[in-house]
Amino acid sequence: MAAYNTISSFTRAFLPRASRLSRPRCAPPASCPIRSQSPRYLSCTVARRTENTDEERKWSTPLAKQLADAIMITGPIPLASYMRMCLTGDIGGYYTGLIEEGRDQFGLKGDFVTSPEISQIFGELVGIWFVTEWLSQGKPKKGVELMELGPGRGTLMDDVLRTIQNFKDFAQSIETIYMVEASPTLREAQKALLCGPDAPMTESKNGYHSVSKYGNIPIVWTESVRSVPDDPNNMPLIVAHEFFDALPIHAFESVKVASQPKSAPTGTPTSTPESSPSRSTAPATNDKDSGPTFEWREFVVSPTPPDATHASLNIPKSEQQDPIPDFQLTLSAAPTNHSRYLPESSPRYRALKHTPGSVIEVCPDATMYAADIAARIGGTPDRPRPRPAGAALILDYGPADTIPVNSLRGIQRHRRVNPLSAPGLVDVSADVDFTAIAESATKVSEGVEVHGPVEQAVFLSQMGIRERAEMLTRAPGVSEERAADIGRSWRRLVDRGPGGMGKVYKAMAILPEKDGKRRPVGFGGSI
Ligand code: SAH
């Protein structure tokens, strides 16, 4: 292989001057919101008894009623349980429920737009990134697995697969493509795009199967990463774009509490200030009051009181034309099971415990996914590998090195809405804690190292987005209008201003451990 001093010259040499076939395109940027914009601050009222004796109460969706009924029995539920039900619950979940006819989650007709839907170049560059990792890791002739977590419409994988047809040896090394997708409807959409609308899909105990229209590579769909087989001799190449932001979060706030004698009664997660005004489970050092201690309390979800108003719920002005949300976030009056152990799981959280008012968001599913990815690439004592191999690219929005705070947001039909309204119809997401992902990956496997996060603008620029866009623009037969569209689209992906995606979105890589000596492309390295 010739030497390429920049990834752009590599990209230019291998990619054709062709655009992908037409697909529904996004409207002018401003009308298609991206999920990372203007995180919402949720003001939190103190939990109050919200027994709903009014049988006439109208819930905005069937899922809202189901949640409210459950809360009546169990008491307020953790934010993570609410998010999970809203996004992937069996009944009416945003991704897993039956979406209204003629509408999907993405693009102009849906709720929000993502980078692969904005520009084909995004997926092309992810494909090139995979190729560069394969080249750097000894170009195995077989045993390569592509895996995507949360593939949406399948657009990103389609662009990856089309692109890697230009790298025959790499394309031939791919044994299987795994798509981890919770939504049956999106699984069908992905199959139609990647395999053809008429291609058969079969079901086995391992998942759903079809064959890619590019190179007849087998594609397997599973609902969780745990169901993807882990062959220690294979090279997994994994991408997750806007997947981690859809994983449920827990939120906690540190509070100062007066120490209680040992005999103090134990509070329950569902107790409210009215029912137990000064209850605490803070461990006491002796039977006398020994001064204040600090505890984490969990934000929990309960129905809004029947007499709630926009003002009493502190709803921002921009959302005051919307109906009162069905649910509200309140701070649990006593520790919960989760507040006792999750904030103790990292020194980053523990350092904040003694500063009352500190808020943290913790995503155990992200930790689990990061650990699984790291185990596949680097091996663990339980899942040994002959040697580390593979790579994972995580692209999402969130702060580079701080713990996310008050980042829960809701989007519906291109608008910010209250995330606790219309459960199942509103997309709910939260900032990704990249440092927590890095911590989890390196803790579980000594065979991996983590690069980044770097801003999306940096990653895509180093991958050659400008040069690729110029190539597409100059291709024969490209109209002025199309050229302008290509220009607008790629610039939006790297725009570091408030409406752009270059700064808030980040890229992180999990790679085989090399003592930090080999930087991957897009993260300061070259091939
Ligand atoms: N990557 C795509 C889609 C992002 S939306 C894009 O950038 O356009 C989130 C995707 O993750 C959807 O496909 C959704 O169905 C899937 N998803 C969300 N939560 C999931 C979970 N817990 N397990 C598996 N898939 C999930």
From TrEMBL:
It holds the Pfam family Methyltransf_28. It is an enzyme of class 2 (transferase). It comes from the Eukaryota. One of its GO terms (biological process) is methylation. Its EC number is 2.1.1.320. The keyword Chloroplast does not apply. Residues 257-323 are annotated as: Disordered. Keywords: Methyltransferase, Mitochondrion, Transferase. Its main location: mitochondrion. GO terms for molecular function: protein-arginine omega-N symmetric methyltransferase activity. Residues 261-285 have a biased composition (Low complexity). One of its GO terms (cellular component) is mitochondrion. It is found in: Mitochondrion. It catalyses: L-arginyl-[protein] + 2 S-adenosyl-L-methionine = N(omega),N(omega)'-dimethyl-L-arginyl-[protein] + 2 S-adenosyl-L-homocysteine + 2 H(+). Residues 286-298 have a biased composition (Basic and acidic residues). Arginine methyltransferase involved in the assembly or stability of mitochondrial NADH:ubiquinone oxidoreductase complex (complex I). Belongs to the NDUFAF7 family. This is Protein arginine methyltransferase NDUFAF7. It comes from Sodiomyces alkalinus (strain CBS 110278 / VKM F-3762 / F11) (Alkaliphilic filamentous fungus).
